Amino acid sequence: MSASISPEVLPVKDEDYPRAVPTAWRPLLTDVVRCLVAGDYGLIAGGAGVDPLPPDVRADIRDAIESYGTLLVELPERAWERATAQWYSNHWVVCVDLWSDTGPTELVLAGRIVETDTGPKFTVYLVHIP
């Protein structure tokens, strides 16, 4: 029995429809969620390609997650089935559902990705319930 390998998802500049999150960006977004799960709401440990957050945005994200009242977990592989990226003139807006041990929560991580000479750069806008 052979393991199924998912095809690579590439960035698509489509202003009309959201697309799947490109495969190359998933480790970066996984790192961001890992920070949030660990309580690093400023994304200090987010690594290369992740903008640390200013105190006001950090506080808003902390409040959204803590008031939701469910313990978040790292993203499972199936999280990418629901995550989207949509092109908006000079950047992609990315939305990723946050997960608990029982499945996806109502919380969504939203931010923007721009391509740079050193790779994708992610800036968090907010964590919210749409």
Features of the shown structure:
alpha+beta, about 20% helix
Describe this structure in words.
The chain is globular and about 35 Å long. The protein is an alpha+beta fold. The mean pLDDT is 93. It has one domain. It starts with 18 loop residues before the first strand and ends with a strand. The longest helix is centred in the middle third of the chain and has 14 residues, at 55-68. Helix content is 20%, strand content 33%. It contains 2 helices and 6 strands. The protein has helices at residues 26-37, 55-68; strands spanning 19-20, 72-73, 84-88, 91-100, 103-116, 119-128. Strands 1, 2, 3, 4, 5 and 6 form a 6-stranded antiparallel β-sheet that branches. Strand 5 (103-116) and strand 6 (119-128) form a beta hairpin.
Task: Write the topology of this structure.
Elements: E1 19-20, H1 26-37, H2 55-68, E2 72-73, E3 84-88, E4 91-100, E5 103-116, E6 119-128
Assign the structural class, choosing from mainly alpha, mainly beta, alpha/beta, alpha+beta, or little secondary structure. Answer: alpha+beta
Q: What is the string of SSEs from the N terminus onward? A: EHHEEEEE
| Total count of domains | 1
The average pLDDT is 93
**Which residues form runs of ≥5 with pLDDT under 50?**
none
Give the overall shape, derived from the CA principal axes: globular
As a whole number of angstroms, the C-alpha radius of gyration is 14 Å
Total of helices = 2
What's the total count of β strands? Answer: 6
Q: Characterize the biggest β-sheet.
A: 6 strands, antiparallel
Kindly state the percentage of residues in helix: 10-25%
Separation, N- and C-terminal Cα atoms: 41 Å
**What share of residues are in beta strands?**
25-35%
Oligomer: single chain
